[in-house]
Amino acid sequence: MAAGVSRSRWGRGPVTTAAAWPLLLEHHAAIGGRTIRGLFAAEPGRATRLSLEAASVHADLSKHRVTEETMRLLVRLAEERGLAERIDAMYSGNRINTTENRSALHVALRMPRGGSLVVDGVAVVSEVHEVLDRMAAFCHRVRADDWTGSTGKPIRAVVNIGIGGSDLGPVMAYRALRHLSRREITFRFVSNVDGTDIVEATLDLDPAETMFIVSSKTFTTQETMTNAQTARSWLVSGLGAGVDISKHFVAVSTNGVAVEEFGIAAEATFGFWEWVGGRYSMDSAIGLSLMLAIGPEAFRDMLSGFHEMDEHLRRTDLDRNLPVLMGLLGVWYRDFFGASSHVVLPYEQYLERFPAYLQQLTMESNGKSVTLDGEPVAVDTGAIWWGEPGTNGQHSFYQLLHQGTSLVPADFIVFANPVHDVGDHHDKLVANVLAQAHVLGFGRTADEVRADGASEDLVAHKVMPGNRPSTTLMLERLTPAALGTLVALYEHVVFTQGVVWGVDSFDQWGVELGKAMAGQVLPALIADDVPDLTHVDPSTAALALRYRSLRGR
Ligand code: F6P
Question: What are the transmembrane regions (predicted)?
Fold first, then answer.
């Protein structure tokens, strides 16, 4: 162990010290070259054996480059890394976010009313439901035009101001469930400190009918506070200096003092807890804009979907546990095949922001290179996550997925029933997703290409290598509960991988320095006098001076 490093309660050293690791290396050497075609040919019941049901998700894991032995060894690795114990620790409110000395208790946000979980003497579940009840009462008032703006007009536009976890979850879920949303109210989401974001979001809105929800766990984030101040000025310039802003501003935060200082009334403030990480918060009060859009009942349905997957994680043996198996497959490709990215392909237009949401969830959680013990990791950790809804991606980046030189494991997500049953659109959509997963896995050999009549000079170009692994998740319909189930699934995939790699999936120290540095650079950009730029490198100093000169400063 390096000097100054203290072993964490949950630390188990580098993953390579697990007995299963060298066995997996050996196993990979033996079967890594086998093809998905070959694996199916050798095992007639494979599609059934490697499919499972979890909550309302049907998952087909058969198109992976694994054998029964692979899965057995991966599960053994999870056991040796203490996954079961860590799941228990998470559910008991233990401070598993060790570097911040906090619990990671997002599972408590969706425990049913009456559930019991006492952490540090606090009955967490009843506190959660108290806030949910207040949110519901507030949403009922706004949706019933009983909460009006300062001039008495009903609220017709809700603008959520937040960034990171205080934006990506709400906007993703709002877009996903827009078909259930209250259409008389316009919903907008502002996150970027680039002024264009708030200007465009408010351009056609009537201040008298607009409500801003300032969502920020800390209530100190530069982007959010800047946008909130601009929103206030926009409101004052539209409605006059005497406007009662308390009718137009709502806060969601853990920082009650800062909210009060901003001037937001206690009745319009919704709290949550330090044990809710930003990227794990869309099902807390951070989801207020979503609740306003879809209503409290649908929001609670979403929570029940989350809870169903939580129960699956908690109560299912590791070898039939979907988030665990998906997490382990991610480790298999990342560390044994060198796959540096993972693509998520929802065949559902309403999930257009799901990949962006997953980027924060996965990469802010597991983009780490130090273990819980403070030592360098011994293997690659979090992959780069990305994606786009199908079928659009098929006409852009799928070429690389099919014939490129990188291995990119894929998750396909599809719903059996469309939200909008228009002509034969949905059957065509589903035909596409099944076709893509098939072609990625099974490819097309040179002989098959020739048999299709290709001229000899094009055979090499038309060969589809195949052997590209994918998971297909099939759900019945995109409901609030289904969305909750999917989000919880990926939260637990991330958790599984973090436990295996031995990193803290709940901190994000890597984003702090950039924030602090921006705070130091800003005065140099706006100062009246020649700025002091000695604290930044010469390249940055030159760019700052160029900027000042272009701005006439
Ligand atoms: O970008 C870092 C981060 O701290 C995220 O983890 C978080 O979701 C986001 O900033 C917003 O933080 P806050 O909700 O405190 O404004």
Answer: none
CA distance 330 to 339: 9
Coil, helix or strand at residue 61: coil
> In which residue are the tokens 């030592």 written?
375
Interior angle at CA 204, CA 198 and CA 206, nearest 5:
95
Report the half-sphere exposure of 310 (CA within 13 A, side-chain side). 19
Tell which residue, 97, 495, 109, has the closest CA to residue 282: 109
CA 495 / ligand 1 centre spacing (Å): 19
What pLDDT digit, counting tens, does each position of 446-505 carry?
999 999 999 999 999 999 999 999 999 999 999 999 999 999 999 999 999 999 999 999
Dihedral sign, Cα of residue 289, residue 295, residue 298, residue 299: positive
**Inter-axis angle of helices 68-80 and 20-31, to 10 degrees?**
160
Each residue's pLDDT tens digit, 202-246: 999 999 999 999 999 999 999 999 999 999 999 999 999 999 999
Angle at 494 between CA 493 and CA 499, to 5 degrees: 100
Kind of pairing, strands 57-60 and 51-54? antiparallel
CA distance 185 to 293: 8
Q: With 50 as the cut, is the pLDDT of residue 387 above it? A: yes
Q: With CA atoms as reference, report the closest residue to 253 among 160, 375, 347.
A: 160
Beta-bridge mates of residue 215: 252
515 is catalytic: yes
Q: How far apart are CA 86 and CA 235, in angstroms?
A: 48
Q: Answer whether 0.85 is exceeded by the pTM.
A: yes
Token pair for 484: 């909750």
Residue nearest to atom 5 of ligand 1 (CA): 164
* 207 Cα: distance to centroid of ligand 1 (angstroms): 27
Calculate the CA 367 to chain-centre distance.
Answer: 13
**Beta sheet of 341-347, edge-to-edge order:** 51-54, 57-60, 470-477, 410-417, 341-347, 384-387
Q: How many CA atoms lie within 13 A of 74 on its CB side?
A: 27
CB 506 within 8 A of CB 90: no
Q: Name which residue sits closest to atom 16 of ligand 1, judged by CA.
A: 216
**Measured in angstroms, how far is the CA atom of residue 266 from the centroid of ligand 1?**
22
